[in-house]
Design brief:
By secondary structure, the chain is of the alpha+beta class. 34% of the residues lie in helices and 29% in strands.
Length: 307
């Protein structure tokens, strides 16, 4: 099985139709100095056209084994009981990801599942019980989890878990009053995704990614209203020259997208993206019908999976 963090990231996009209060980012649950942070409000997502489409996809019989595998580890149904997921790291390495999974959880039941299916061992850390087990797909990796009434915290090392618990317990500074990162874009009722970062070592070594590594800070927000998707990405570069270079690269990528004759919907999306530069700040905005994005994804997936 993949790491719990990656597993949750994949499945948090498929939460379904519970009539519960939304699960926006809880800043008090996050340490004060994350290098990057990514939050999905699954309750908001499930109300969207995009969310309903994702639910349809994971409800297919072919996905049944994934549901069973997920429930065997986490003991709740991600389609009906997952409300939000926050993933962050305090160090610029992907192996140190932390995840906070907000869901309808029965702690004793979930602890029993971890002990039975993963041979998890329980240790005590202050007032918390920490469960530890070996990743079945990678015996060199140890996963950790703390189970609380309304959330699960997962980590892949003890130092990250200790820092997360200290922030949540109020014994260490948290992100609520942090000045380490710029303010996240304001989240409205229709916002289902928020993200911010101040280090981009995790993006890879591709030429376009290399330019992104020069960014000092970035923030992303996505929401859907009346079946229309709106997303805004704001990036701060070190100087105006670098911002201009990145804007040229972005416009080139949009031009390539507009020339995809084998995927007309993707080409149409290109006209829905705007790039603006103000000094060393670059802003990319997407505003398009959610159905157009889904149609483009369908074509792309069909091409990718074609023998």
């Amino acid at each position: 099985m993949k790491s719990p963090v990656l597993t949750l990231l994949a499945f948090c996009l498929v939460a379904t139709v519970l009539s519960v209060a939304a699960a926006p980012l809880k800043r008090a649950d996050v340490p004060a100095n994350p290098v990057w942070l990514f939050h999905i409000d699954c309750d908001a997502l499930r109300q969207t056209y995009l969310g309903r489409y994702l639910l349809y996809q994971v409800s297919k019989p072919a996905m049944h084994s994934n549901l069973v595998a997920f429930e065997s580890l986490f003991s709740f149904d991600y389609r009906t009981q997952l409300h939000g997921v926050t993933v962050y790291t305090e160090r610029p390495f992907r192996t140190n990801d932390m995840a906070i999974i907000y869901a309808d959880i029965v702690p004793d039941h979930m602890a029993g599942r971890l002990k039975d299916s993963q041979r998890a061992e329980a240790t005590t850390a202050g007032q918390h019980t920490v469960y530890r087990w070996r990743d079945q797909s990678n015996p060199n990796t140890t996963d950790y989890a703390v189970i609380q009434r309304n959330c699960v915290i997962t980590a892949q090392d003890t130092a990250s878990m200790a820092a997360a618990l200290a922030a949540m317990d109020g014994t260490a500074p948290n992100f609520l009053a942090s000045k380490a990162l710029r303010e996240l874009p304001a989240a409205g009722d229709a916002t289902f995704l928020q993200a911010t970062a101040r280090n981009f070592d995790f993006v890879g070594a591709e030429p376009h990614a290399a330019l992104l590594k020069l960014a000092k800070w970035a923030a992303l927000r996505a929401n859907e209203t009346n079946e229309r998707l709106d997303a805004v990405l704001t990036i701060e570069l070190g100087d105006e020259y670098t911002a201009t270079e990145m804007s040229l690269v972005a416009r080139g990528l949009i031009a390539q997208l507009s020339l995809q004759t084998d995927n007309p919907k993707a080409a149409a999306l290109a006209s829905s993206i705007s790039i603006k530069r103000s000094g060393n700040i670059l802003t990319a905005t997407l505003s398009a019908p959610s159905a157009d994005l889904i149609a483009a994804l369908k074509v792309y997936t069909a091409k990718r999976d074609k023998p």
